[in-house]
Each structure stands twice: as C-alpha cells, then as structure tokens.
Write a structure and sequence with these properties.
It is a single chain. By secondary structure, the protein is of the alpha+beta class. The chain has 3 helices and 4 strands. It has helices at about 10-20, 40-45, 60-70, and strands spanning about 1-5, 30, 35-40, 55-60. Strands 1-4-2-3 form a 4-stranded antiparallel beta sheet, covered by helices on one side. Strand 2 (about 30) and strand 3 (about 35-40) form a beta hairpin. The chain is globular. The two termini are about 20 Å apart.
Length: about 80
C-alpha cells in the first residue's frame, strides 16, 4: 500500500476529492484519527474528522499513485 496525507477544508472539498478518487481503478482507503472509510464513498468521506490531516492509502502501482496525486494535488497536506 502506498500512502500520502490530504487536508479537506470544506464540504465542496469532500465532493471534489470523492470525484477524483471514484475514477481511479484501484482501492483507496482514507483514515482519520478514529475512522477508516472507502475514499470513493461520499457518505463515508463526509463522516470523517477534518481537524487533522487525513491519511490516504492506495493499493496501486507507483505510476498510478503519481497520477492520482497529480489529480488530487490541491488536497495534499
């Protein structure tokens, strides 16, 4: 699993990040201090605590990770 951190600051950020994650062809899990959810689930993502950075874990190749990180660049912590 490859990982990186993001920051979500608004409801719109949740929608936008889920849109980016949903088109990826691999599993993406995000976790806050207490919860672990599927990054492609809007309801799951909306339930997280955004006061701290969120850890993103991807089951993907290095190339897929770099492409995903580019698409999610504005959320990187």
């Amino acid at each position: 699993m490859r990982e990186f951190e993001i920051r979500i600051r608004s409801f719109q950020d949740v929608q936008d990040f889920v849109s980016v994650a949903s088109v990826q062809p691999f599993r993406i899990i995000v976790s806050s201090s207490r919860e672990i959810v599927n990054a492609k689930s809007f309801i799951g993502m909306a339930s997280l605590d955004y006061s701290q950075p969120i850890m993103v874990r991807c089951d993907c190749t290095t190339e897929q990770l770099e492409d995903f990180r580019q698409q999610a660049e504005r959320f990187l912590a």
